[in-house]
Amino acid sequence: MALWSNFTFNDGLFALNTARMKIVGQQLACERGGRLVFAGVDFTARAGRMLVLRGPNGAGKTSLLRLIAGLSEPAGGTLELEEASLPPDTLLGEHVHFIAHQDAIKLHLSVTENLSFWAGFFGGGDVAGAMAAMNLTALGEFQAQRLSAGQKRRLGLARLALVEKPVWLLDEPTVGLDAASLQLLADMMTRHLDGAGIIIASTHIELPVKSSDILDFAGLADRAG
Amino acid sequence: MRIGPGEMKSAFAAVISRDLSLAVRQGGNIGTAIGFFLTVIVLLPLGLGPDQQLLQRIAPGALWIALLLSVLLSADRLYQTDHDDGSLEIMALSSTPLEVVVLAKASVHWLTSGLPLAIAAPVLGFLLNLDTALILPLGIAMVTGSLALSLLASLGAAITVGLRQGGLLVSLLVLPLYVPVMIFGVLASSGAQSGIDNSGTALIILVAIVLAALVVTPFASAAALRSYMR
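Above: the input entities. Below: the C-alpha cells describing the complete assembly.
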C-alpha cells in the first residue's frame, strides 16, 4: 500500500501539498444538449472531508462531477482550486481520479493486465497493492469478461489505489458491490481522507465514511428554471 | 512543462502494448482486413477475364484500391471501445496529452492493418500478373503510404466516435483525403508502365504527405475526441 502517513502527495509530476487544499464552486451552472441541468450551485470541498452529492436521477450529479474533472465547461459561475501549492495554470484533471459509470476495463485482458496497463499509462503504480485493496489478488489471472458485475466494479475501483491522486470524484461507486466490498471501498476512502485527500461522491446509500458534507440537489431543480 | 518525455513515452508504450495484445487476442481486425483484401484481389481477375496484359497494367492500381478499402474497414472501431468503456475519458484526464494517445492508437492501427496488407500485397500481386520488377517499389510505396492511411483513418474515427453506426460516415469523410495518397502511391509503384518513370518523385511526395499527416492528424483527432467528451 502506498504511503498515506504524511500530507504530501506525489502523483509522479511533483510533490503536492494538499493539507489546505479546497475546491470551491460558486454559482455554477451546467448546460447539456441545450438544456439547463442546474444553476446557482455553491459548494466547497475541503481536504480530509468527503462531499456527498444527493439528489434524484437527472438532477445533475454526474454533470457536476464531469465539470469538476474538467471534462466539460461550466455554462456559468466559477470553479477554483484554492490553497494548493500548484502552478496557477494547473488543470485539475491531472490530479483527479474519476470513477464514472463505466469501469474503463478491457474485457479481453486479465485483471492484472488491466491494472498494469493503467500503471504503465500513469507512469508507475502499485499493481499488487491495488489488487489487495479491492480483494482482487485471487482473481489476477482471470480475464475481465469472466468477472461478475460486482467484481468488474471492484476492478474499476482498484484504480484508486493504483496511483495516488489528491482528488477523487466518484460517481455512484457502490453500484453492484456486496457488503464486504463496500467495507473495502469505505476503508480505502477513509485512508484517502486521513491523508488529507478530497472526495466528492454521488451516492444513494449511506457510506460508512466519517466527516462528510452534503450537497443536496433536490431544491436546485426549481432554481434552474 | 510539467510532464517529462519519460512519462509520455511510458504512456505511449502502454497504449501500444495493450492494443496490440487486444488485437492479437480478438483477432477480428487483422483477419477481416486481410480476408477482405484477398477477396477483392481474387475476384478481380475472375470478373475481368484472363487478359494477362490488361491485368498487368491495372495491377498496381487495383492493389492500392483494395488496400484503401481494407484499411477503412477497421477504421471506425479505432476509438469506439475506448469511448464506450470509459477508458478514453480517463486517458483524457491524465497528464499525458491526448495527442500521444491518438498517435499510439494510429500506430497500432497501422501495425495491425496497413503493414500486414502492404507486405501481403506484392505476393497477392501474382494473382494479377504483377510485373516482378514492381514488387519492391510497390512494397515500399505501400508500407509508406499506409502510414498516412492509418493517420487519416484515426481522424475520421475520432470525428465519428460518438455516433452509432458511424462506419459509413468514416468512409465518406476519409475517402477524399485518401485520393492524393492513392494517386502518388500508384504512381510510385507503377515504375515506367505509363511511359515515363516518375516513381522516385512520386515516392518523395508520398513521404511528404505522410509527414504532413503525422503533424496534423494527432492534433485534429485529439481536438475531435475532446469535443465529444464535453
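Note for the figure: Chain A is about 30% helix and 25% strand.
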